[in-house]
Amino acid sequence: DMMEAYHPLPTPKRYISGETFSYLGRQYRLRVCEGKKQPARLHGRFLFAQIPDKENTVLARRLVEDWYAIRAQDIFKRYLAECLRIVSRHGIPAPRVVVRRMKVRWGSCSSKGLITLNMNLAKVPVHCIHYVIMHEICHLKHHNHSRAFYALLGRCMPDWQSRKKILSRLVL
Question: Which tens digits make up the pLDDT trace of 34-80?
């Protein structure tokens, strides 16, 4: 569904110090430090990953991905609640939501009402995350991109087009 035509594939990361990672639309530099393994953490404009052996990029990657996964769950939950509050007056029930890594789409909605959100959404600005979640929630009522779908989206999020435009320009 949305964005798949022009969502560029991210350049592969090597998970070494100095690489840049996006989080909520901001850039952070990875610092891989040697020491006892600890969960990755954000400090200032750096994302710190501490592992016993700096050359172990497989472990560095796992720490970074675990960090994104935790953040994604947290942020998506907040915006999901916000969207559901808005759509409840349109008779849309709360969906089941899963978060996983997706190659081409930001999100999808199945005919059975399951919404899947791309973990990479944690990399984009929050107003774009909010838009993707609202877009998928509106598909619970209209499983297509019909005029009725866009009318509903417009009522629930009047400025959706400007949010979509920003999202379409992002390269992750």
Answer: 999 999 999 999 999 999 999 999 999 999 999 999 999 999 999 99
Strand order in the sheet with 114-118: 96-100, 114-118, 107-109
C-alpha 58/C-alpha 52 separation (Å) is: 12
Q: Are 23 and 47 in contact (CB under 8 A)?
A: yes
156 near 90, Cβ under 8 Å?
A: yes
18: left (phi > 0), else alpha (psi -120 to 50), else beta? Answer: left
Tokens of 42: 């954000």
| Confidence tier at 118 by pLDDT (50, 70, 90) | very high
Number of C-beta neighbours around residue 147 at 10 A: 9
Two tokens, residue 58: 């497989």
Please give the pLDDT value at position 8: 54
Q: What is the CA radius of gyration of the chain?
A: 18
Question: Which H or E run includes 65?
Answer: helix 57-87
Separation of alpha carbons 156 and 133, rounded Å = 11
Q: Which two tokens stand for residue 147?
A: 């005029």
Predicted pLDDT of residue 172: 56
30 three-state secondary structure: strand
Q: How confident is the model at residue 170 (pLDDT cuts 50, 70, 90)?
A: confident
